[in-house]
Specification:
Blueprint: H1 2-6, H2 30-39, H3 47-52, E1 62-67, E2 73-77, E3 83-87, E4 93-99, E5 116-117, H4 124-141, E6 142-149, E7 156-157, E8 163-164, E9 170-178, H5 186-189, E10 203-211, E11 216-226, E12 236-239, E13 242-247, E14 252-259, E15 262-269, H6 275-284, H7 301-316, H8 319-327, H9 329-333, E16 336-342, E17 347-353, H10 355-358, E18 371-376, E19 381-387, H11 391-399, H12 406-410, H13 421-436, H14 442-450, E20 471-472, E21 485-486, E22 492-496, E23 502-506, E24 518-523, E25 529-536, E26 539-546
Parallel strand pairs: 1-5
Antiparallel strand pairs: 1-26, 2-3, 3-4, 4-6, 7-9, 8-9, 9-10, 10-11, 12-13, 13-14, 14-15, 16-17, 17-18, 18-19, 20-22, 21-24, 22-23, 24-25, 25-26
Helix pairs in contact: 7-8, 13-14
Length: 553
């Protein structure tokens, strides 16, 4: 009877005021994580993610602001994190530093217990420690390994361009020289009838391949009287050992294969795409001298394939589609190659747009019509063609982003293989913003999202601290895309996705600096180490953010 009275059920509903939700406590201690890894069985296929969750327990906790550095432009780490690339101030040399590890400065900072050293402390000991750290910190973290001479005479390195091979063995850089009108060559400037009418002086480009470990240049390729978009790795794409280069001026795609540091040209897709095209053409049309290529009426091979595919698609839509095709034929005929990406070792994604877009004479290029062509350059087959309003292409991009990020996946950046729920939420928020904006809508949103295609090569930082599935942060001031951001006046806070608590913060702002402030970050791909470089007019200020143990034996 007592048992029944003790456990008598109650069927009264609890009010919302009486209901208290208790969140399960999350222990992110590194020791507990190591024990759990030993004693728990994880689901198959989650090993890479489970390893990255350890970064929620080990993160940067010290900032040394306004540190000294050698003159030059610090760029990025190699994919394996062993070396740091820098360009000299005169843009003639490539400097390769060997990274010593985030623990290299522990003996120097063993007595520091704060999370910030910036010289503004009222404690004299902190000010002395900061003065010592700012002078010696760079030399503790990095040792100069090689200084490679790349350019001479009037050539200079483009400091907005650099790429590494997946194995971190080779580096690609571009040098540029502005051509003068005295050196104008008609044949070199107009190689076919797709060549653009120049609006700015031509430039000579040289693509250099450098052996990072040996510190020597292994090969180079010249592109004279040309226009190649090299800012932020545009115009050149690398996928494993295959390199593509898009010549905007000549409307030619060059394909190279990198073997033991030597770039071998395998394809040149311009007037023709293969030797068979040349033989078929000469069987129908009389031989034309090199000086008259730009006058011929026949389409270049890739433009011809594009128009044929668009016509076949129009036929499938019936008489209305054919009528629309001929109505806009003049626009289609004038399309030019704008951007190129390697999807895999043999497939190109080529974006076509009007000449005003390609020559950057319009302010909003993403709102204008353009076409995406998927082309197998080994077989010469056009796989598909999509307009920039295609719902089919948008669905593929949203459901399978790894198809367009295969080169990132091969570099070990597996977080780019698919959208996690947080990355998808960012994409969805962007889409809803465009749809709800003035003059927006569903079609405008598709244009804006597909404007990201083709992807630029190696612009994503693989650092786990920028992985949205591990940490939450304000993407207005920092993101995984390597580009300068507006510098805020407050620390950038990183919250753990697992506990929701503040894990660490990066102190990069400075309220004393006036004017528009831009800041760029260089994260190590695997260690709790980062550098922030603030640019204000001609001034460059560097700060180090790294893991520090207050007590070091």
């Amino acid at each position: 009877m007592a048992f029944q009275n003790r456990y008598a059920p109650s069927f009264e509903l609890e009010s919302s005021s009486d209901l208290v939700l208790h969140r399960k406590p999350v222990n992110e201690n590194i020791i507990n994580r190591l024990k759990a890894r030993e004693t728990h069985i994880r689901p198959g296929g989650t090993g890479w993610y489970q390893q990255r969750t350890f970064y929620q327990s080990v993160f940067p906790n010290l900032t040394v602001a306004n540190a000294d550095k050698p003159p030059g432009y610090l760029k990025k780490f190699t994919p394996d994190g062993k070396y740091l690339l820098s360009f000299s101030t005169d843009l003639n040399f490539v400097e390769i530093y060997e990274y010593q590890g985030c623990q290299a400065a522990e003996n120097l900072l063993s007595t520091v217990e704060k999370n910030l050293l910036d010289g503004n402390s009222r404690d004299v000991r902190d000010v002395r420690m900061w003065a010592l750290a700012k002078e010696k910190l760079f030399s503790r973290f990095f040792k100069l390994k090689h200084r490679v001479t790349v350019t001479t005479a009037n050539h200079y390195l483009n400091r907005e361009f650099c790429m590494f091979t997946d194995d971190s063995k080779y580096l690609l850089v571009v040098s540029i020289a502005v051509q003068h009108h005295d050196n104008f060559n008609m044949l070199e400037s107009f190689s076919n009838n797709e060549s653009l009418t120049p609006s700015t002086p031509f430039e000579d480009y040289t693509l250099h391949c450098i052996d990072v470990r040996a510190g020597v240049r292994t090969s180079l390729q010249h592109f004279r009287n040309d226009k190649i978009f090299t800012i932020r790795n545009q115009g050149v794409f690398i996928h494993q050992n295959v390199i593509s280069v898009l010549s905007i001026q000549h409307q030619v795609i060059y394909i190279f294969k990198l073997h033991e540091g030597i770039m071998h040209q395998t394809h040149k897709i311009g007037r023709f795409a293969s030797g068979d095209d040349d033989m078929l053409f000469t069987d129908v049309f009389p031989h034309i001298s090199d000086h008259d290529f730009y006058r011929e009426k026949a389409y270049c091979v890739l433009k011809n394939k594009l128009l044929i595919t668009l016509y076949k698609n129009a036929v499938e839509r019936g008489p209305a589609g054919i009528s629309k095709f001929f109505q806009h034929f003049q626009f289609l005929e004038d399309l030019k190659m704008w951007k190129v990406q390697l999807i895999d070792e043999r497939t190109l994604l080529v974006k076509y747009a009007s000449q005003n877009v390609v020559t950057m004479r319009v302010q909003e290029p993403s709102t204008l019509p353009s076409f995406f062509l998927f082309y197998d350059f080994e077989s010469g087959e056009v796989l598909s063609v999509h307009e920039n309003t295609s719902s089919e292409l948008l669905g593929i991009f949203q459901a399978h982003p790894g198809l367009f990020y295969q080169s990132e996946v091969h570099r070990g950046n597996l977080q780019a293989a698919s959208y996690d729920i947080y990355s998808y939420k960012v994409l969805k928020r962007f889409k809803e913003t465009i749809m709800n904006a003035k003059y927006g809508g569903e079609m405008e949103a598709r244009k804006r999202i597909l404007a990201q295609l083709p992807m630029q090569s190696q612009i994503l930082n693989p650092s786990p601290y920028l992985d949205l599935s591990l940490f939450s942060y304000d993407d207005k001031y920092i993101s995984s895309v390597e580009r300068p951001k507006t510098c805020g006046d407050y620390p950038i806070r990183f919250y753990s996705r697992k506990s929701g608590l503040l894990s660490f913060e990066i102190i990069a702002g400075n309220t004393a600096t006036a004017g528009r402030k831009l800041i760029s970050f260089v994260f190590h791909p695997s260690e709790p180490f980062a550098m922030s470089m603030k640019r204000n007019q001609d001034n460059h200020v560097i700060s180090f953010h790294f893991r520090h143990l207050p007590v070091c034996s």
